[in-house]
Amino acid sequence: PVDLAIVTGAASGIGRETAWQLGRSGYFVGAVDIDAEGLEEFSRKAHADGLSAGIFLADVSDDTATNRIFSHVATLKKPLAALVNAAAICIFANPEDISLDQWDRVLSVNLRSVWLMSNKARPFMVESGRGSIVNISSVHAWATDHLVSPYTASKGGISALTRALAIAWGKSGVRVNAVLPGPIDTPLMRANLRAVGDEEAEYAKLSASLALGRAGQPVEIANVIDFLCSAK
Ligand code: NAD
Question: Distance (Å, rounded) from C-alpha 42 to C-alpha 58?
Fold first, then answer.
């Protein structure tokens, strides 16, 4: 049977590009997101391009919703070869202005979700003796900027959690890696620019500060993730 790859955050940006790229590489893709419209759009494009994909509407920070995802995976009878945790949100505010609910929401969607999804994927991967989990951390795990403190904390957490899972599960054949992108041109990056000032002016300033003179494109990260999923 065809290998299954699950991608969270698959309705937009890096997740959507990754889901599409993994479909091109021959996986059956399970695209997970909370954005129904974005998922439908992904599904239409995937099928028009001849890819095999199914969509799953779920909040990845929710224990029950993630249980439903994996109950469904069990019915598919396809080896779960890859899980890409790309879903994330960001709240743009100074640390002193963040509410408790905002803090908890960002940490739940970005970090708890990685633990929930990975933990529930693990038994399927152990059963087939192989599997690759790729978590999207961020350059913010190392060096950060103003207005993104819960996001930054979540990304530092993802990097640390990735190392913990990698050593815990490596000997059972489950590889766990993280990618730490710099600025990539997606709706999330555009929202960040608008939170700071005029979008185009901020994009010009950002580009000038970057080695390539431009932000990255989602496909440049999707290709790296596809590679990390591929080695067996
Ligand atoms: P994006 O906003 O375009 O896509 C994020 C997706 O996650 C959206 O489709 C959204 O609906 C989904 N999502 C949000 N909350 C969810 C939830 N609770 N359950 C399920 N899905 C949910 O953002 P992007 O820039 O493509 O980001 C993808 C990943 O890359 C994120 O982890 C982000 O932190 C990371 N990243 C992005 C950049 C960048 O510059 N764009 C840089 C470094 C890391």
Answer: 15
**What is the atom index within ligand 1 of the atom nearest the CA of 185?**
41
For Cα atoms 32, 38, 44, give the angle at the middle one, nearest 5 degrees: 95
At 112, is the secondary structure helix, strand, or coil?
helix
Lookup result for tokens 């060096």: 143
Q: What's the rounded Cα separation, in Å, for the pair 209 and 222?
A: 23
> pTM for this structure?
0.99
Mutate to test the pocket of ligand 1, among 188, 192, 194, 196 (most ligand atoms within 8 A of CB): 188
> What pLDDT does residue 68 have?
98
Rg (CA), the chain: 17
- Residue nearest atom 3 in ligand 1 by C-alpha distance: 13
